Structure formats: C-alpha cells, structure tokens
C-alpha cells in the first residue's frame, strides 16, 4: 500500500462527485432498504428492485412483515438467491423489531440482527444519515480499492479497516459508496475507463498500466 498518497485529500473529489447519491437499491424508506439489503446479498440490485414494489404492496412495514410466513413470501421473493435463509432472517428481524420506528441505527445493533453484516449495516447507516462507524465494502470496492492503492488484498473486512486507517471518520460514510459507484461506472472489471477516471492521478493501477 502506498504511503505517499494523502488519501484524505485524494479521495475528496470522488466523494464530492457521488455525495448524497442514493444507493442503487430503489427503496422509499429505511424499512424497505433494510429488507432489500438482506435480499440483495449474493443477488443483484436490479433483480431486487424488480420485485420490491409487489413485495411492499403486500408487506408495507415491519409490523406486516412480522406476520409473514415462508408460504406468503415465496410467491413474492421465491426466485431470490438463498431464499430460504433470507426469509428466516427477515421474519426474525421483523418479529424482533416489530415496528419501523424501532429499526436500530448503530453498527452494534444492526449486525446483531440476522442476515445483516458490516456491509449491509454501513449501507443502512449511510442512507439513513446516521453517524458512520465503518466503510461500506461491496464487491466493487473489493475490486477497486486495491487498484487505487488505498487497500490491498481481497478480504472485505481487511479492506474496510485499511480504508478506515487511511481517511478520517468524517469521510467513512461516503467513501465506500463513492468507490463503489466508481467501480460500477468507470473502473469496470475488464475494461476500466482510465481516461474518464477522476482518480487516475493517484491510482496505482493507472500508473502500472501507463508506466508512470
């Protein structure tokens, strides 16, 4: 990992570019986001967005979801990957939380819920405008952060810790989503668009490719 880059300064333009942009999951409130985040694990945001409207017509809030069963949820989300476990997690969360206003907004409380890890918790905290307690690391961040040089390896937990060490807490909430959006739009797996990248001046991968 390069120690020459002042990442707090270097990542600022990227954060400014994407600051406040909503997560690609098309939710309308934090209840919907929590449900969709759980469903989207190992699945695609696009797939979850396609089925969410009908799901929330039947189960519009946490109270309604607490009365759901596998049989009532199967027609709505039965095609979601790992459906059986996700239904257990969601109904378990709903029975525990009981109402939308009881959704916790701290890392400790969120990761204690079934089916929610640090990535999901970081997404929920960011979208809810709560204080950041970590950096969101999804598959795009796992790919892009080592390319940039702000982290190394492929372990999401280690990448998160490395990014947290490189930038101040005030940037944590937006940094992960900003890197993720960069990965979705510019730093693609096989054909990164170097000439369009806002981070090319500090990017380790760019310098390796261009020999600078």
From TrEMBL:
Q: What SMART domains has UniProt attached to this entry?
A: ENDO3c (SM00478), FES (SM00525)
Swiss-Prot/TrEMBL keywords: 4Fe-4S, DNA damage, DNA repair, Endonuclease, Glycosidase, Hydrolase, Iron, Iron-sulfur, Metal-binding, Nuclease
Q: Any idea what this protein is called?
A: Endonuclease III
- Which gene carries the instructions for this protein? nth_1
Q: Where is the HhH-GPD domain?
A: 39-185
Which Pfam family, any one, appears in the UniProt record? Answer: HhH-GPD
Q: Which GO terms describe its biological process?
A: base-excision repair, AP site formation
Q: Its domain of life?
A: Bacteria
């Amino acid at each position: 990992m390069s120690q020459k880059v002042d990442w707090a300064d270097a990542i600022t333009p990227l954060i400014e570019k994407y600051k406040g942009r909503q997560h690609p999951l098309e939710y309308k409130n934090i209840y919907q986001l929590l449900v969709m985040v759980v469903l989207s694990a190992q699945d695609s945001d696009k797939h979850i967005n396609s089925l969410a409207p009908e799901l929330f017509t039947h189960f519009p809030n946490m109270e309604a979801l607490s009365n759901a069963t596998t049989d009532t949820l199967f027609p709505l989300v039965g095609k979601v990957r790992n459906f059986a476990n996700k239904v257990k997690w969601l109904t378990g969360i709903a029975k525990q939380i009981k109402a939308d206003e009881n959704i916790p907004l701290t890392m400790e409380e969120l990761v204690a819920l079934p089916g929610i890890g640090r990535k999901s918790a970081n997404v929920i905290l960011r979208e809810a405008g709560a204080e950041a307690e970590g950096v969101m690391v999804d598959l795009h961040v796992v790919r892009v952060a080592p390319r940039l040089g702000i982290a190394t390896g492929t372990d999401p937990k280690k990448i998160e810790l490395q990014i947290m060490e490189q930038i101040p807490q005030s940037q944590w909430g937006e940094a992960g989503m900003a890197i993720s959006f960069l990965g979705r739009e510019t730093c693609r797996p096989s054909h990164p668009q170097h000439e369009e990248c806002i981070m090319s001046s500090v990017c380790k991968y760019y310098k390796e490719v261009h020999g600078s």
